[in-house]
Amino acid sequence: MEWFVEEHDGTAFMVRYDKKLYEGGKMQRIEIYSTSMGKMLVLDGKIQFTEADEFIYHEMLVHVPMLLHPNPRKVLIIGGGDGGGVREALKHSPDEITMVEIDRMVVEKCREYIGIDAGALDDDRVNVIYEDGMKFVEETEERYDVLIIDGTDPNMISQPLETARFFERCHEISDVFSSQTQSPFFQKDYFRAIVKNSSHISRKFYISYMPSYPSGMWSFMLSSRIGYEADIERRIEERGIKTRHYNASIHHASFALPEWMKEMLNEG
Amino acid sequence: MEWFVEEHDGTAFMVRYDKKLYEGGKMQRIEIYSTSMGKMLVLDGKIQFTEADEFIYHEMLVHVPMLLHPNPRKVLIIGGGDGGGVREALKHSPDEITMVEIDRMVVEKCREYIGIDAGALDDDRVNVIYEDGMKFVEETEERYDVLIIDGTDPNMISQPLETARFFERCHEISDVFSSQTQSPFFQKDYFRAIVKNSSHISRKFYISYMPSYPSGMWSFMLSSRIGYEADIERRIEERGIKTRHYNASIHHASFALPEWMKEMLNEG
Prior knowledge:
The structure is a homodimer. The first copy, chain A, is α/β, with parallel strands linked by helices.
């Protein structure tokens, strides 16, 4: 047994593993481990998911925007090559899901060694495009009911103009979009940059527990053209959505932000 | 720079430290470090708090029961030798706070090297008793408006009868009591034992983020003889409570439990 270590701001999270199942990649360094938290995907040294808690992240990223929308027929997912986001989005029976993943090898190796997509990527309604997500969002002439940004890092700090433009385009081409926005506790500069670079569009932030991510506290952005209120409980029931973490109470609770986060939002 | 490591269930949290300020103790092994998360207290190898996030834990443990009570004049704190709980409870201007800490050296060394009590333990309204908390609760003939159980571990798994009796007594001698109940994500057996051993009294569970604790997700029990609803926002304003994490929205949101936790509660 050995330890995988991921450092952040003078702290680190370690996971014990019995085997490294894969290491390789062209665009990114892909590592896949068999760990005490199940199988684990690491990209460029950062844990992307473990089987023990990926359901929390994917449910919070996907069901919050999907349930805010009254009828999500057409869905775009940027990133998310592991297929966990597609798996959750399919629960809403959309007509089509387009997934734009920059790194084909992430998709291939996740399917070969892990398979958290649970067959979702083979679904007839799912179209996978291998392309840069920012480029796709910039150029597309399509509009989407729901857009989900899963894991691409538009380099919030060094390229604020590009980031602001990206969020603007996401807002333009969708009714509702969500994006993961890192740890507000350990990655404060990053989070502040996201707040600043998104301040020109309508958006709210929400948070979730996420044990294998730095600080165990993860933030998300939700941007909507159709308001932020809905009868979530009724929609969960109508659509027959089954989850392991997310529910209507968690949906509403995730928008309650602590004082120190509200201060960061007010600075932006 | 070296690393302090705390392991849990095949994972570990590490904090970088530049200096070990103290090591000693008679009842427990006390270590105090100067770390990347500020000063840090460790008892028997487990992180008790870091200056960077102790406010989250202490605010969630103390203000939830204190604000549920309409007029908390008389407060009992079991454990909490660092004084962080007393510091938060004093914000409610009670007439008296009794703190029962089993280990005098924890109080002395925390004050000497850290001081998160911010002078609270010198307050005229605060009475510190060095005694076993379970024994105190068993024998006292006093009643308290609010009782806060901060950190003593009544050994939920190996001594269920003793634990059940302890919770029963806490319920008997207080209007409202709260207790920290560990990580529901990594310490599932422990949490299930708490659920079982408290099932004979009225109680609810609530959760909070806590970056330096295992999984970053921490649970608490709240037991009340006066119901579980109150106008928290009004009371915060009336009492002039200033916090860095806790607020009325967080209070209510902390009772929203994920599906996997609700399943554990239903088993109990």
